[in-house]
Amino acid sequence: MGITSVWGISPHDGSVISALEPRMRPLIESVRALPESREAWQRWAVEPLPDWRSWYGRGDDAGRGALPERERERIDALIESFHGLTRAGPFDELYDGRCEGDDFSILADVWSDDFGQLVPFLAVHSKDYAVPALFHAIGSERAALIPGWTGNFVLSAAQVRQSLPQIEAVFSFTAEQRAAAEDQLWLDVRPGEESVLDGPLRCWREAAAHGLGLCGAAVHVW
């Protein structure tokens, strides 16, 4: 049975951000503080992953077939560690609450807010995940500048303004850098759909311009 994941970045006024803060921030910090989280990030930062077309390939895909078996196993372990770090999962309680009786739902309480003329960024993928694809495409140095943890964050209007220069640095590319990032971005994007290389920066700029906060959440929806 397949899964569907969503990574959403949405603008909100201060009252919504204040309500989300006590729910989201402790969860984000607890996941970030896990030894396995820190170890997986450091592992990825020290040794970036190879071309995604070689992952789990067979035969001679991207030179994989020429590698010794031990080296293939080592790379496979790096890939699994990276996926464990970046895939949706630890934050699924944001989708439908922490436990029975908790009626919080990110669909009803966050993504159904009144955004006026602003448009949230929603990356919806079947059997795939937006955050790992983005992080692989941009690399660990850029990804480390994104607040929160692996695409999950809750920011006040002041924090949005303060972090905008960082996000500008993350998503500003020369033509050559953009082409390289797109080459390593394996997501299937439908015609007219906003790329993960564009949506986050747009949301940050719009929220900063309108004095709004931002919520980012990566979850399974089914």
Shape: globular
How many distinct helices?
A: 10
User: What is the N-to-C succession of helices and strands?
Assistant: EHHHHHEHHEHHHE
* Largest sheet properties: 4 strands, antiparallel
Mean model confidence by pLDDT? 91
What is the helical fraction, as a range of percent? 40-55%
**Side-by-side strand order of the widest sheet:** 2-1-4-3
Strand fraction equals 5-15%
DSSP E strands, number: 4
The low-confidence runs, each spanning 5 or more residues with pLDDT under 50, are: none
Query: Which structural class do you get from the secondary structure elements?
Result: alpha+beta
N- to C-terminal distance: 10 Å
The value of Rg in angstroms is 18 Å
Task: Based on the model shown, name its key terms.
222 residues, alpha+beta, 4-stranded antiparallel β-sheet, 10 helices, 4 strands, 48% helix
Structural overview:
By secondary structure, the chain is of the alpha+beta class. It contains ten helices and four strands, in the order E-H-H-H-H-H-E-H-H-E-H-H-H-E. It has a four-stranded antiparallel sheet. Helix 6 (130-138) packs across helix 9. The longest helix is centred in the N-terminal third of the chain and has 20 residues, at 14-33. The protein is globular, with a radius of gyration of 18 Å. The protein starts with a strand and ends with a strand. The mean pLDDT is 91.
